[in-house]
TrEMBL record:
The gene is mreC. The keyword Signal applies. Pfam families: MreC. Belongs to the MreC family. It comes from the Bacteria. GO terms for cellular component: plasma membrane. It comes from Candidatus Ornithomonoglobus merdipullorum. GO terms for biological process: regulation of cell shape. Residues 120-269 form the Rod shape-determining protein MreC beta-barrel core domain. This is Cell shape-determining protein MreC. Involved in formation and maintenance of cell shape.
């Protein structure tokens, strides 16, 4: 460390001497033989000093510019993050408003039954697809057996009720069974939950009339049988069809219309309207 201190002292002293000499040359020598001689002798040194001074100035300028660029980049990055957050929030609000509007439209379209809108507050702690909890219960007039739907289709039925909450068993649960019909042909059957299919957010259609043709893409909806689900609510569409050796249907895999992994608001159908 002392070596570098001494070295820098020498450099600084030399720079001061050269600067003083340069000043003296410029201001005192004038245009005469002595001044010319001094300029001639000191020209290489002054040239080197000028180069060093320029390089040092450029270096300081570079460092300063880099600091300014870094500050600008940090400011731009912060602004970019803020704008992304605002865009994300705006998109979230837009999606929520759209969901709520669709739910309101559905509620207004159901005139034969009384309905209650509710929000999903949790999923089953064991298997997310089995049950969901909503924030309305007996205090809102809900009861066991009430059908639960969204603007997309059927969610399930209420199987437990508290004062301010209800547990909804979904159509993906293995205990679930919904009487359905194929929209295209009118053939009736039963949509049931299946543990293996439920892991992929699917269920199965079985007990379909043998005389009823069914193809991939067919839409199935509630038939109204069983007294829980009113007729005409979409369950989902046919993903694949499995048949036995005689060509008779064994079962069809159904892709539900409801996105069970992203449930937010639901509509409970809790009785005959007034």
């Amino acid at each position: 460390m002392p070596f570098f201190s001494k070295k820098w002292r020498i450099v600084i002293a030399a720079a001061i001497i050269i600067a003083a000499a340069d000043f003296a040359v410029e201001h005192f020598a004038g245009i005469n033989p002595i001044g010319a001689a001094v300029r001639t002798v000191t020209a290489p040194v002054r040239t080197g000093f000028s180069y060093i001074s320029g390089a040092v100035g450029d270096a300081f300028g570079f460092v300063w510019d880099m600091r300014a660029y870094k500050a600008d980049n940090e400011a731009l990055e912060a602004e970019n993050i803020r704008l992304k957050r605002e865009n994300r929030d705006t998109a979230s609000y837009r999606e929520e408003n759209e969901r709520l509007q669709n739910l309101l439209d559905l509620q207004e379209s159901i005139t034969d039954y009384s309905t209650v809108a509710a929000r999903v507050i949790s999923y089953s702690p064991n298997n997310w697809y089995e049950t969901v909890e909503i924030n309305k219960g007996s205090m809102s007039g809900l009861g066991v057996g009430n059908a639960v739907v969204t603007s997309d289709g059927v969610v399930g039925r209420i199987t437990e009720v508290g004062p301010n909450y209800s547990i909804v068993t979904t159509i993906l649960d293995s205990s679930s069974a919904v009487g359905v019909r194929v929209s295209r042909t009118g053939g009736s059957g039963l949509v049931e939950g299946d543990d293996e299919l439920a892991e992929n957010s699917q269920c199965q259609l079985s007990f379909l009339d043998r005389s009823t043709p069914i193809i991939v893409g067919d839409v199935v909806e509630t038939s109204g049988s069983g007294g829980i689900y009113p007729a005409g609510f979409v369950i989902g569409s046919v993903m694949s069809v499995s048949a036995d050796s005689t060509g008779n249907l064994k079962y069809a895999v159904i892709d539900p219309a409801v996105d069970f992994e992203n449930l937010h608001e639901v509509l409970v159908i809790n009785g005959v309207g007034n």
